[in-house]
Amino acid sequence: MAQQSIGLTGFGGYIPRLRLQRKSVAQANAWVAPNFLGKGKGERSMANWDEDSVTMAVEAARDLLGADDDRSHVDALFFGSTTMPFKDRLNAGIISAALTLGENVRAVDVASTQRAGTSALMQALTTVKAGEAKNAIVVASDHRKTRAASAQELDFGDGAAALSVGSENVIATYLGGTSLTIDFVDHFRGGTDDFDYNWEERWIRDEGYTKIIPRAVKAALEASGTVAGDIKHFVLPTTFGVKFVQQLAKASGIAPDAARDTLADNCGETGAAHSLVMLVHTLQKEAKPGDKIMVLHFGGGCDAMVFEATDKIASQSGKRGIAGSLAQGVPETNYMKFLTYNGLVEWEKGMRAEQDKKTALTTLYRNEDMLMGLVGGRCTETGVVQFPRSRISVNPNNHTVDTQEPYKFADRKAKILSWSADFLSFSMSPPNHYGMVVFDEGGRIMMDFTDVEQGTVDSGMEVRLVFRIKDIDEKRGFRKYFWKAVPVTNANVTSKTGQAAE
Amino acid sequence: MASGIKDKVAILGMGCSKFGERWDAGPEELMVEAYLEAMQDAGIEPTQIDAAWFSTHIDETGTGKGGTPLSMALRLPNIAVTRVENFCAGGSEALRGAVYAVASGAADIALALGVEKLKDTGYGGLPVGAAGTLIPQWAPSGSAPGNFAQLASAYRAKHNVSKEDLKRAIAHVSVKSHANGALNPKAHLQKAITEEQVMNAPMIAEPLGLFDCCGVSDGAAAAIVTTPEIAKALGKHNIVTVKAMQLSVSNGLESQHNSWDGSYFHTARIAAKKAYLEAGIQNPRDEVSMMEVHDCFSITELVTMEDLFISPEGQAVKDVMDGFYDADGKVPCQIDGGLKCFGHPIGASGLRMAYEMYLQILGRAGARQLKDPRIGLTHNLGGSPSQNVCSVTIIGAHGA
Question: Which residues form the domain of A418?
Fold first, then answer.
């Protein structure tokens, strides 16, 4: 019996808007780390204070699924990351709730290795192939913490990618793949540590990548029945630069110009997400129908997969993806802001920040679709929508009782009715912007704004909604998530808190 | 329809502590200060008080819950004390409880007292607190100025007023209140200011600067109420009576239904209409002699002028700039300095507003005395523009 063709059926991507200028970092640290002055070029993506691997994964998955998708067809969710906010609470479960996926979804966290993204993808492929899921989604996301004045601080970036796996409308057919498992410890992060511990780069390059990658390439070519010369796109994340990737390609018989952009200049390496980030970027910018793509990720061995793009790839042209995210960057020159957002500075937050942030988990669960999925109510008699849902309708003309059905707000068009920029209340990104957001199709929510620059907001402005961290309960290690409004501005924005790097 | 409260209850005596940063006083001392003045004014003994209503908002800063803080501070004779709390409108709530008790015949003489001790938190502004377990999981963790500032953005959009024109009008609101407060020895802030000072002050919550925000003060205020007949029997000649007491509370329309445009107080308009009806006022712009409104922020006062139907819709900016609400204007507003300068000890504010109207009607307001005021209106708001309680009380000379 002929094997049913399975593969990627769609993609999405998300890179946070702020782009930390490496020059600002290198110059600030030159007194202690003058050796990094040469690395002070280009920019790296920088998560806002209210973003983590989960929220970025949600954004990438929303891009993948699109605003009109009711999500009922998604039956599996694989989340790959080494920076999941919870060690014991299903992180994929948070993503699932934010995406309003059904409870029958198989949600899995894949962690502990830079290969987490590719391994999550391989699990999705295997699951679909086995017939245990029809439409799986894979999200990979990382928000890695680095020490100040380290090479990683300059090399890394924050970001996420999402892929869907299925057998219909396949945009890139899965031809085969392999995993090599080798306990090669180029770096590690202990169970209680915030930061990676890194071994010598030359050893990692010469004994690690140079020797392990060709073995993975060879195995993947065999598994997929592909010859090296047919690989048009060679997707391999590394901080050793694209020339090194070209050398590795060449060593395996793959054309050096198949080496794809590692996005070092304008994004930085997004950890476990990066192979999928690069893959999405390749699918958006380079891949033509019929092109064969090899995707690898090094870490405790190596994952390697081969795909073949189909003519359905054009169906994804409306996606933001990685290319769109990269085009929407806002330069950030304030290195102190980066350090503060990443918890690397003990700063004076003031007494207003002392408020206890304890979350009542009972309340959270009772209102789960409201808080996690931004689901309100729609009166089945009058059609009036509202947030939150309630037994007695808010409709002033007809307070109907028990008529409300769940109504999703997250992807609806909305505008600002009223707002303020508040310097008094505590905010990680002052002034604290919030206001009343009204939805074109009815309903309104008083909500926090995020990704906003002072002086760019006004009534009537369009907003889009994003899933973000609401509060961090440092005392208990918990974090609240909710939705926030991002004002959509066409203006050429730069971060105003930035100090000159000169 | 109910016959209403008009002229059924008289104010026998009132008292008000000095407001301000009362580093010298705890809530007990503040309560005693207001109480002793009210008792002296009323000319009664503690044993003559049948019941008391006690208003305080924030438990955490020292006053505590229940009726005991009042009963213990004043050594009341084991009478009923009901603690009321309705955001910043608690003072009016306490008065309402006492007035209704007298009107019902359940009490001959009742006490209303409100107090707030805010300056024990270690920082300026209102104490930061959580509201239950659900709201903190989604509502913005903003501040009072940030919530009220939003009136400005919506008002500008609705009435097509420029940022500059609105900023100057709300600056004038504060300049007027400071001029009034400078004549009030009990006021927290007693210094006159200029429009330029207001316009150039540090921003608190756009567009509200430092001088657009009221004082955060310690203080207490009290009223002793009875029937007009008992007041006369106790030897009172100039009797001040309650003409109307209305309270309107948001039901979620403003925060959840798109029929509200964010530029006005839905509740204030309802409470005002009902209060005018109860008091028999046909044309408030002509009949109201003076007002104490809830000027927690300058923009609140400006839009309230329209909500109380004193300024026509969209015309408050013009009236404010014309001096209509200044001390020498047609309807003087915040003649005691308002929340802006007298100060805003939350639980006491509604009673403090009534205190000034009472003094003015009796001709006892000293340097700020208006010429022959007959009808005074107090407007006491709690919550935020999108979700609030609004009290409108009208008091006046008996027979006015």
Answer: 351-374+409-487
